[in-house]
Structure formats: C-alpha cells, structure tokens
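Protocol step 4 of 5: obtain the predicted structure for the target chain.
Materials: sequence only (see below). No template structures provided, no constraints applied. The aim of this step is simply to have a reference model before the mutagenesis design in step 5. Sequence pasted as it appears in the construct record:
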Amino acid sequence: MPVMVMAGSSIEFSIGQWSFDKIQAKNLNTSFRLTEKGLGFIATVDSIQLAEPIGKLSKITLSCDELIIVSEQYSCAKGTIGFQQKELSKQILEFEVEAHPEKNKYKIEIENLKLASATFSITAIFKNDQWKVFADTPQLQLSSLIQFLSPYLQNEQREILANWSIDAVLKLDLDVFGSGEQITAIGLDLTGDAINISDSGGLYVSEDLANSLNLEAKKVKQDWQWQVELDINNGQGYADPVFIDFTETALLFKAKGQWLNQQAHLNVNTMSLNHDNVMQLHGDFSADKNGLIAANIKVDKSKLSQLYSIWLQPFVLGTAMDNLELAGDISAQFQQQGDQYQLKIGLDEVFSHEQSGLFSIDGLSGEVAWTNAEQAVNTALHWQSASVYALTLGESSIQAEVASSSLSLLEPWILPILDGELILNNFTFNHQPNAASTWNFEGELMPISMESLSSTLGWPLLHGQLSGVIPKVHYAEHKIKVDGALKVNLFEGSTIIRDLELETPFGALPQLKANISLKGLNLETLTRTFDFGKITGRLDGKINNLRLANWQPVQFDAVFATPEGDKSRRRISQKAVDNLSQVGGGPTGILQRSVLRFFEDFSYQALGLSCRLRNEVCEMAGVAEADHGYYIVKGGGLPPRINVVGYTRRVDWPDLIERLKSVSQNSEPIVIE
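Step 4 output (structure tokens):
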C-alpha cells in the first residue's frame, strides 16, 4: 500500500506495486517539492510493463522542475525521463507536457530520443480521439534503422533485405495524423546526399546518390489521396539495364493521385518526369493488381541521340539497333483503355546510321503508329535518302494504316534503288501478343543497271540490266522466304531463283539458301562484263543447294553448259581459251607455240564447267570426260576448232577464287599451252 512522508516543503510517497489497464509498475517512489517557478517532482520506478512493441522499461527516472497545476490544466515546461529498454537501450530524454483533462487535450514534446543510431525530436498532440505526431532527425543511418526494425519484420521481408547492401545517411521529417487507431494523413520529407545501395545480383546499384523525397497522403473515407515529388540531382544509378549519371542529367518526378483501398486500385491523376537534357514525360494512368486499366502518357519532343543512349540502347544490346549514330527529334504518345492501346511516335529530320554499315537513313520525318484496336490509325513516313549494306536507296514515302496489331500499305511503296526501283505491293506487317513478328509482300524490280550495281557492291564491272517480278515474300521466326519463283532478267537471259530462304538477315551471321536456274545467258555479254575473253553463244546453268553463311558460299552444286539445241554462233577467243585452261588447271603455252596462234578465235561444239562445293573444297568437272581430265570446251563446227581440257578435279575454294580473280584482272592473254 502507499506510504506518504511529509518533510518541510517536500512530500514523498512510495507504491510497491501499481497497475492501470494493461500497465504494471513496481516500486514507484515520488517526491514533490516547491520551486521558484512552480512545483517540482522526481519519480523513480524499478520497472513498468507496457504493451508491445515497447514491452518492459526498467530503471525509470522522471523529473520536472516546472510542474504547474492550475484549474483544468497541468503542464511541465522542463522535464527529463530516463529508462532502459531491450531494443532502445539506455535513454535520457527531455520533454515538455501540456494537459487539459477537462478538454481531453494533451501535448507532449520529446527531445534526444536515441533510435537506430539517430537522435529524434518528437511532438505528439492528442485531442479526444484525434492525434498528431511530428518526428524529425538530422541524420539517420538507413542500415541501422533496418537493423532496428528487423525483429518486427516477417521472415520473407528479412530475407529480401539480406540480399541488399545499404549505406545511406538521411534527413527525416515525418508528420503523422490519426483518429483512434487509424492513421488519417502522412507527410514525409526525406533527403540524402550519399546513398549507396546495391543488390547481391548487381542489377540495382546507386553510388553517392543525392535526392529529396516529399510525400503527402490523406485518407478520405477508406481511400487515400496522395502526392509525391522526387528530385535526384547528384550521383549515379543503375537499374538493369539503364544507367544514369544524375550529376549530368538530374531527374525530377512529380505525381498526384488516389489509392482506392477496397478495390486495390491506383489512380495517377497527373504525372511528370523531367530528365534534364534528355526528355520530358507527362500524363496520367490507372492500374490494379492485374496491370494497366487506362493510360495517357506523352513524351514531348526530345533529342533522339540523348534519349537513345540512356533509355533505348540498353534494351537492344546485341541487336542491329545496338550501334547507332543518331540525330534529330522524337516525340511519343501512348494511350490505353482496357485491353486496347495506341502508340504514336513522331520523327522530325531524323538521321540514323548503323556504324558497321548495315543500314542508314537521313531526313526521316513523319509519324509511326501502332494499335491493337480495330479502329485504324494512319502511319506516314518520308525520308531523303537511305542505304542497306552498300545499296543506296533514294527518296521515298510510306502511307499505311494500322489496326488489330497489323500494318497494311495504303498504296504501293516505291523504293528507288540505285538507278532503278523496287515496287512493293500488298505489304502487311503483323505482330500479335506473345507471338513473333511476321510480314509479307509482292513486288516488281524495275531495271537496275548492272554497271551501277556491280560498282556499288565491289563486283567486277557487269553490263546489262537487272529486273524481274517478285512473288510473295514473307518473314516469320527470323526467316525470309519466297513463295514461288523469283524471276530476274540478267545478261539477256532469265534467272529463276526458287526455295529462297534467308535466316537472321540483320543478325551477326545471316544464312541464305536457294536453288537457282539460269537460261539463255548471252555469253558475249557475260564474258565482256568480266573481261574474260570473248565467247559467243548461249549458256544454261543450275546452282542447287546453295547456302551462304555471312554472305560467303559454304555449299552448292553448280553446273554451267551450252544448252542442247543451241543454234547461235559459238566462237571462243584465244584469251578465253587461255583463261578457261587456267581455271581448270591445264598446261600453258601450247597456243603460242603452234600455228593456232594466228587465229583470233575458234569454233566450239559445247562448253561447260561444274563445281560441287563442300567443306571449302570444289569437286570440278566439264561437259564430257577426256583421257586425262575433263573437257571444259569441246571443239566442233567449222575450223579452226579447239578443245580445252581441265585437269584439276579437287581444288580448295579459296584457291579457285584466286584463279578467277587472276583471270578477270589480267587484261593480257595468258599462255598456258
């Protein structure tokens, strides 16, 4: 039971054990005394048991030098309290208290609360069931705070935090408002200038990050209205795969919205992202646990080179879009309602050059659109010039419409190529969700001079024209296939390409497969093109099982021969005889040492050559077998006649290429027999 003692101007009393509601105390000793500014008191308690998470306090000392008790008001202008607690350790706090019991109004101010290696100042105001708590600290170690909170976290949360390295010093200002047991409003100001955070996988890293975060949230009925502002103006950050140096390009993010608690629904009414010298994004959206419900997001006109290097290039590493030189402006707008969306990208005087020479485009302007909705939107593009590999493409325009994740041309696409044109008809592009892209078209190749084409591609100078009809071409699963036969007019004859297939055309190792038939080629035009020596007559040929890897032959079965029933005049010059002999590995010097040296050309019955290429070895043959080789040219017709015999049956492909280069580059007759 209480014991009271009065001595002079002081009163002391003790209570061995005391309990109130769920609070229990042991050995309460209190002393009151008169001071110049009012009433002073000192109270000590061995221990008090409070509700969790505080729990047990021990060695408690409470004192006040300026306790004022007047009608309906109690106050302590200068007080201290000391105690020990398991997690909080030893604490010595300064406090001020104002109490108006009749009005059920209380105010408590606490200084020097040591929590997670930080010193907090806290003010709490209570009126009826309404309350406010204000807390701030000038220096908070985030790692220490996490360690302090760890006992109160779930195992799953602790496991997640264990995979992170966190070193950050923050300044915190927190305001919390409530009613009864409910929080009704929150205000948070958080600043830091040396935030270093990384995960164990190295996917998220910050170094010396400086930022300020302001968050305000207010509860309206069961929902929350909120606004947030984040300013990052120093340091570096990496979130796979994007890296940003915020010292050079600061980032400011602002947003306002609601959180609908019962529906777990997020509304962002206004949002803006200002990334200095890179882009400005703004808009609104709503989402739930299943994803976006509606959105309207716009990227203002931005410099494409800056936007690409920071926000686009990291997502295309290892592709043909990874190594671009860019200039010009770009803008974008994304809209979504339910499952339907629409994307528009504006381009203004864009220059793009793939630096390994794969492609380039200059003066590109217009708008590219894409949508999965049934209502069509238009796409219109125009450019001044372009190139694919070494091929020069002229000025061109595209008019198309997009609907249901498919693009279709509104009019034929006329694409100038060198001095000719490629006309594409019925072009469609399709990209359905969770499926690879596909496209197809038909077309026609208007005459391109072989002189221009061969010069551009670095081939020997060719004569004549290249033209033809392009059957249906389609692309799927990284392969280009041609349905039917591709017809090309070349060297006054016809070339038919069947079973054409091109894999990974823009990849690191493109693969091409085809079967080719040649009919009625004019040998005079062909040999004049390659400066091979004059041959007249016609030539048929087949190149079956052709396979190129990175545009170099690795396999084919090729046969070239005079067509049966050829009625044309068949003559072969001395130079051509010499060059064919060299290709076949025959002896040299015979023509120049015989009477045949006086004749400029000779008649022949048939000529031909074949090569079966496997593993860089060419197995060669001719139009007929000879005693010790094979006939490349079989003599016939009016005299003078001549035979050309090849002796090499197997030859390394690189050696054969060198032979062909040698005979095409040598303008003088080569003596071999």
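Step 4 remarks: The two ends are 136 Å apart (CA to CA). The longest strand covers residues 182-199.
Proceed to step 5.
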